[in-house]
Amino acid sequence: MNSGPVYALNLFNVKDREEYLTYVRRSAKEVPAHGGKVVAVGKYRDAEVGEISPRQVLILVEWESRQALQWYIDDPALADLHPHRINGTSDYIWHFYDKLEDFRPILKGEHR
Fold first, then answer.
1. Please, are residues 54 and 13 in contact by the beta-carbon 8 Å criterion?
2. Half-sphere exposure (CA, 13 Å, Cβ side) for 21?
3. Within 10 A of 91 (CB to CB), how many other CB atoms are there?
4. pLDDT digits over 45-58, tens only?
5. Domain that holds residue 102
6. Cα separation of 109 and 112, whole Å?
7. Whole-structure pTM over 0.85, yes or no?
8. Long-range pairs, 37-46, Cβ under 8 A, ≥24
9. Handedness of CA 7, 48, 52, 15 (dihedral sign)
10. What CATH number does residue 79 fall under?
11. So what's the pLDDT on residue 1?
């Protein structure tokens, strides 16, 4: 397992604006405090290929490590924060990717 930076790809729809805003206001401080950095935020435009149902929002967060991301998920001080994300969104996709400098490890079969 790669111990370096990890990207968290978040794709979702906003279900309850106020609930999600409650999450956003606090997570804007907590994500950096736990080793994360938002590197991209996007609003769905259209699809070229693929069979995934579109989601309204894309957020890409770079975490210092998988351990930092897990700390954000498991930190007891944030137990009251995560329900706002869950209750404020729908159709959530949350995938984690190792950061690579180039494609060589994938092309050599070193990553799944």
1. no
2. 3
3. 13
4. 998 888 889 999 99
5. 6-107
6. 7
7. yes
8. 37/61, 37/62, 37/63, 39/7
9. positive
10. 3.30.70.100
11. 47
